[in-house]
Amino acid sequence: MPDFDKLDKAIHEKGRLSIMTLLATRMAWSFQDLKAELNMSDGNLITHLRTLHKLGLVAVTKEIRDRPQTSYALTAKGRSAFQEYLRVLEQILKAGRK
Amino acid sequence: MHERERAEEDLRVIRTLMERATIYRAISAPTALAGGVLAVALTAIIWVRELHWAARAPEVMRHISTRGFASLWLAALAIVIALNTFFVWRRAQRDGRPFFSPSMKLALRSILPCLFLPAATTIWFFYDGYEFDNELLLVRVWIGFYGLALIATQHFAPRSLVILGWAFLITAAAMIVASRQLEYYATPLVPNLAMGVTFGLYHLIYAACVWKSPAPAESE
């Protein structure tokens, strides 16, 4: 039977799961937009993003237009990790119905 | 908490966030209802007033000026925009989210280019266009480009809003095809009726259809 041990621990934390979910919806998100959408503090958000970046799940792009802007996107590894996470969740729900 | 419940909770979080990030209803049910009622009321007022004066002074072709007609409808638009702004602000306050959400910015970026030409046509109408009773042209542009603006949000809007957009666009196209027949009738009755049917009736039907939508939160 599938269980939570199979879930990616990096994604399983609620804050990081929310970040991964938003990043899966678009090509890239700016830090400000992520912060606005998730209603997280700067410190909390940056900590989660750094964790995901270190694990190679999230790519960071820094640009200077009118002002410095940092945007975040899922890497190929991050996208497949998120898909795998969803697959395991689905299995858990299916097993629970039996 | 059991594993299944935790999985359900995780999926609920994922679903809510994905909907919030990917679905945006540029016109909420309350805004559509308010706009629809206002448009129907304004149509009725102009219609009754014209008929009243036509009976008392039949030698005069029309009683509301062309610029007066356009001004009344622009005033109605201003009221609906103010109401919509209030609904968005109230929702943002309740959810503890910013007024200019990323979804709203995306919607504005999609919609605004479609409103550029109607704005230019309206300016032209107030300078020159009014002299030749051009309300029918103005109304066709308003209806058609409003429809295009709604369709422009199709990548993140619910299906109902896109259908509403198509209803406007098809109506405007039909009005262009039937130009000769429509121009036969006295202005401003036909343009007035067209505004009442589209901005009034269509919005009321839309409001009735989406009023109990499961995610009204995303709308305003």
Number of strands of chain A: 3
Q: What class, by secondary structure content of chain A?
A: alpha+beta
Instruction: Specify the helix fraction band of chain B.
Output: over 70%
Distance N to C terminus of chain B: 35 Å
Q: Structurally, how many domains make up the residues of chain B?
A: 1
Query: What fraction of the residues of chain A are assigned to beta strands by DSSP?
Result: 15-25%
CATH topology name of chain A, in short, is Arc Repressor Mutant, subunit A
Number of domains of chain A: 1
CATH superfamily of chain A: Winged helix-like DNA-binding domain superfamily/Winged helix DNA-binding domain
Computed structural class of chain B: mainly alpha
Tell me the Rg of chain B in angstroms: 20 Å
Are there runs of chain A of 5+ residues with pLDDT below 50, and where? none
- In which range does the helix fraction of chain A lie? 55-70%
| H/E element sequence of chain B | HHHHHHHH
Model regions low in confidence, pLDDT < 50 over at least 5 residues of chain B? 215-220
Per DSSP, the total helix count of chain B is 8
Topology:
The complex is a heterodimer of chains A (98) and B (220).
Chain A: H1 9-12, H2 14-25, E1 29-30, H3 31-38, H4 42-54, E2 58-64, E3 68-74, H5 76-97
Antiparallel strand pairs in A: 1-3, 2-3
Chain B: H1 3-22, H2 29-56, H3 66-95, H4 102-127, H5 135-151, H6 159-177, H7 179-184, H8 189-210
Quick structural gist:
Chain A contains 5 helices and 3 strands; from the N terminus they run ααβααββα. Chain A has 98 residues and is of the alpha+beta class. Chain A has one domain: Orthogonal Bundle (Arc Repressor Mutant, subunit A).
Report what the structure shows:
The complex is a heterodimer of chains A (98) and B (220). Chain A is α+β, with helices and mostly antiparallel strands. Chain A has one domain (7-91): Orthogonal Bundle (Arc Repressor Mutant, subunit A), CATH 1.10.10.10. Chain A is 60% helix and 16% strand. Chain A has five helices and three strands; from the N terminus they run ααβααββα. Chain A has a three-stranded antiparallel β-sheet. In chain A, a hairpin with a 3-residue loop joins β2 and β3 (68-74). The termini of chain A are close together. In chain A, 29% of the residues are buried. With 220 residues, chain B is mainly α. Chain B is 76% helix and 0% strand. Chain B contains eight helices and no strands. Chain B has helices spanning 3-22, 29-56, 66-95, 102-127, 135-151, 159-177, 179-184, 189-210. The radius of gyration of chain B is 20 Å and the shape is elongated.
